[in-house]
From TrEMBL:
The keyword Acetylation does not apply. Residues 13-260 form the Metallo-beta-lactamase domain. Keywords: Hydrolase. SUPFAM superfamilies: Metallo-hydrolase/oxidoreductase. One of its GO terms (molecular function) is hydrolase activity. CDD domains: TTHA0252-CPSF-like_MBL-fold. It comes from the Bacteria. It holds the Pfam family RMMBL. This is MBL fold metallo-hydrolase. Residues 265-390 form the Beta-Casp domain.
Amino acid sequence: MKVSFLGAARQVTGSMYLLEVADDYRILIDCGSDLERSSSNGQPAPATPHGNFFPFEASSINLVLLTHAHVDHSGNLPNLYREGYEGQILCTEPTFALTNVLLKDAASLNQKRINELNASKKQRVRERQAQMQKDLYLDKQVRDAMEGVVPIAFNRKFRVTEGVEVTFIPAGHLLGAAHILISVVENGERKSICFSGDIGRKNYPLLVDPAPVPPVDYLVCESTYGNRLHENTQTPEDALADVIQRTCIDIPGRLIIPSFSVGRTQALLYTLNRLYTERDFPPIKVFSDSPMAFESSKIYMQHVKMLSGEAKAFYKENESLFDFENFQFLESSKASKAVSNYGEPCIIISSSGMVQGGRVEYHVAENISNPYSTILIIGYCAEGTLGWRLLNGQSTLTIKGKEHQVLANIEKIDVFSGHGDRDDLLEFIGMQSPETLKRIFLVHGEYGSMEAFRDTLAEIGYPQVVIPKKGESFVL
């Protein structure tokens, strides 16, 4: 058995790992977009160029296992099929549904970019358009990938080939997210390896807690928060209530919350619903400005049985998770822009979470010079993004070519981060015995975070920790 680290090695995004077992059976675990390959305008590379990311023949892969829907784990699946993969993708039912939404959105953006270049009369730009037409996946490639999905239930062993069994274990983090346990029998010896995916945190809005993983021989573990703890110790309800009280009630202000459409926005809306339902907050208008968030919320509603006990009880009593008084989804761009004329205190939730691309740029531009407005950052912002610049105290920002003075209040809370922190990661690894666990591979984190986490693990009795380089392989 051999494992190769083809992505998210000494960096956060682009998760992709190749497991080769007996009879040359090759399993790809995740096939994510590398969002750290930034384009010149600071935005993530639009999609993976054909043939650029795969250091293998796509047709040589026998099976793909997908931990969860986020594009840094799923975003290159359409390219894999375009390059010749003809097999199946195993994932949970919610992961299938959410991945379909995310990839269709990416394909739509790719088509828009191509159309914009195609409209140019400059020969150089039109040549670039022709190249992009070849490189970027579109809706057909997304359909090809989604037709290959086979939904798998949690906590049931699934035999994928002779001597190889796969089990999906709830990981929290996102609806449908899984740790993937693979058991392999080679030469009469049984070996096991677990790929953590992204590890969630306990008591996160809507989601179940990460489930325990049985003893394994090898563990591939994410390390996003390997060197730090979450800053906010309040519950999501208390933290959000405090911000709303200060920004929309004590003063007649406007609260802008950049938020990712899949997962983060649903946690926010559910928390707001509970505040208005259970704490008698004044009926402040809430706008959710993301068509993709609307589609994702419908998927959450279709899978209520897979949510936390608390969420299921709330739904049973109130018959809704996300619909409450004075709440409105904004479906059109016209409705989105009309919100600027709303004169009462309100909350606007819009993507993307890093304030980079999406409708949120418009809302930030409209409110950034208003001292009665607050921009609340609720997650990680990559260096160079507008969100990162706001958090670092820039006095002016250029948005879509226009410079704006920053007079709005900038705040941050991390209670809605879907990643477990250092203590959560230690608890996850602590389920494994140091005497029987042969090796831990740290992935999906900044290198400094990985080094700090490796040192922490060594201090508590886990010296067998490796931080793989991209492309590095290990015989297990």
